Amino acid sequence: MNRKLVSTALAAAMVCSMGAASATTVSAEEQKTVGILMPTQSSERWINDGANMKKQLEEKGYKVELQYAEDDTAMQVSQLENYVGKGVDCLVIAAIDSGVLVNAEAQAKEAGIPIIAYDRLLMDTDAVSYYATFDNKGVGTVIGNYIKDTKDLDAAREAGESYTIEFFMGSPDDNNALFLYNGIMEVLQEYLDDGTLVCKSGRTSFEDTCILRWSQETAQANCENILTANYADEDLDIACSAFDGFAYGIKAALLGAGYTEENWPLITGQDAEVMATKNIIDGTQTMSIYKDTRLLAEKAVTMVDAVLKGEEPEINDTEQYDNGKMVVPTYMCTPVAVDQSNYKEILIDGGYYTEDQLK
């Protein structure tokens, strides 16, 4: 698994880097302004995304205004309207709830301001020009296959054995969350159907397992309630979590319920945050999905640069991301699973973290 995961990571880096535009300095007379809207600073990854894009755009000579809305939808609407009023030249938006941005996005289109959707698809609008993201269904597929392979579900099926599993899925107002869920179920549904995986709470649908605003606190409360109601006399074997923040809440709930190293379940996550990686090292989280935000930021930056120069950016998907008004031309980067076997090669040798950060 180690060698395969490392190869996948290297391939992902090559794929995301191919076709990247070389740095082009914009003269002071031609300097244009890019407005970036990020959802929150409560998650490490969004801080990194914003900082990476700002740095790369400024290196190309653009003026950059970066704002975070702290998961306040009204604030993000106001920020977007302010950018339109200022007459920025391009917008990059990672939405909290894209449904509330539709009217402001229409104002941007009317003003001739192109919009790049960043890692969260902007729904129900024809104002979006391009979308830069990771393969969100692929994230779910990687998580599902990790569970399948690590627990060897095919062998368990043959032996008539089973594992208990509970699901903690992403926010219902984030279109990525449903893509991720579908990817997981594409792998795991057959094992739920034949009893190799047993969900004692019965909560397996997206509607029953989604957690609004990706809340760690809600994930912890949900896990505490599930453990109390369903696992008093039997251990939970797998916590299928869509986000590192959920994994932190699940860990707290398990510790509160008396779980130890001897009966600790497999716990998945997404984003490979510093804390998650430390938990992977100490064994309280099993894996996470590594999404190199440096590469995703680079793709968004090349999209902005191309749009503002009247050029066509590189895309690799014109079918998957239908937002209800249009199929949005997209560039997808590849997600990679990290665990104890490969985090050093992927995260440290790859320059994403230093050894000191993970101590």
From TrEMBL:
<keyword id="KW-0813">Transport</keyword>
<feature type="domain" description="Periplasmic binding protein">
    <location>
        <begin position="34"/>
        <end position="312"/>
    </location>
</feature>
<keyword id="KW-0762">Sugar transport</keyword>
<dbReference type="InterPro" id="IPR025997">
    <property type="entry name" value="SBP_2_dom"/>
</dbReference>
<dbReference type="InterPro" id="IPR050555">
    <property type="entry name" value="Bact_Solute-Bind_Prot2"/>
</dbReference>
<protein>
    <submittedName>
        <fullName>Multiple sugar transport system substrate-binding protein</fullName>
    </submittedName>
</protein>
<feature type="signal peptide">
    <location>
        <begin position="1"/>
        <end position="23"/>
    </location>
</feature>
<dbReference type="Pfam" id="PF13407">
    <property type="entry name" value="Peripla_BP_4"/>
</dbReference>
<keyword id="KW-0732">Signal</keyword>
<dbReference type="InterPro" id="IPR049784">
    <property type="entry name" value="ChvE-like"/>
</dbReference>
<dbReference type="InterPro" id="IPR028082">
    <property type="entry name" value="Peripla_BP_I"/>
</dbReference>
